[in-house]
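Researcher: Please translate sequence to structure tokens.
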Amino acid sequence: MGYLLDPANWEWVFAGRNFMFLVERFLNNIILALITMALSLILGLIIALLRISKNKVTSTVTGIWIDVWRNLPVLLILLYFGLALPQEAKEFWVDIAPGFLPPQIRSSGQVIASIVALTVYNSAVIAEIFRAGIQSLERGQGEAAAALGLPYWKAMRIVILPQGLRRMVPATVSQLITLTKDTSLVSILAIQELVAAGSIVNNTSGSPFGGVGVPAPILQVYVVVGGMFVVFNLALSLLSRRLEVRERKRVGEVETVTGLEDQISIKPI
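Model: Translation complete:
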């Protein structure tokens, strides 16, 4: 414990631009995570709806797709798309990448391979979460919507999905947190992210930009790296809880009926 808390082992944090170097590389993780989150949620919802389709062929094919991708290691999927994705696709990313993105994200064609790999895996997992949420609703919800004359897809959009997805907020956020942590694996495709940056700081004695640095013990470096992930993922968890509380309040609110029948006093005969 004394080794961990020794002030001399933490001097590297304040020396030069070591801490900012880690923050800048962590921004790469966050950008990859946010892009993949958006794509995974959209694709996951589409896959979930196909999975519960009444068409047996569609449902079966989608089920096989989900089972294959969600049971493969993320590292293997990253390697697969890093090698299998056409070079033209990687060059296309470099050409169209917005200028406001960090240079490490704009200039690496393997970024698109990472996005595709993480999206394919996480959309399969999220699809199962959404499917479970939708099918957990009482059967009467769908029957009531049908009794009102709503077609299947309209009933799904207005009645089923809002309730089912609301139930799956905790599980969905948990998977998004896992997604954020999985972005640390993209270093295998030579993308500079936070964990790789931590190794650079440690290997260069706390001076990744050259010159004379101070020793950066690997334990302290990775404590800082882990702390950054904790802060970001904790923010996601707090957002999830706020959404849950907000939805509970909305469900608990009872609107006052102000129709004509409320204005007519019924007198006993």
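Researcher: Any highlights?
Model: The chain is about 75% helix and 0% strand.
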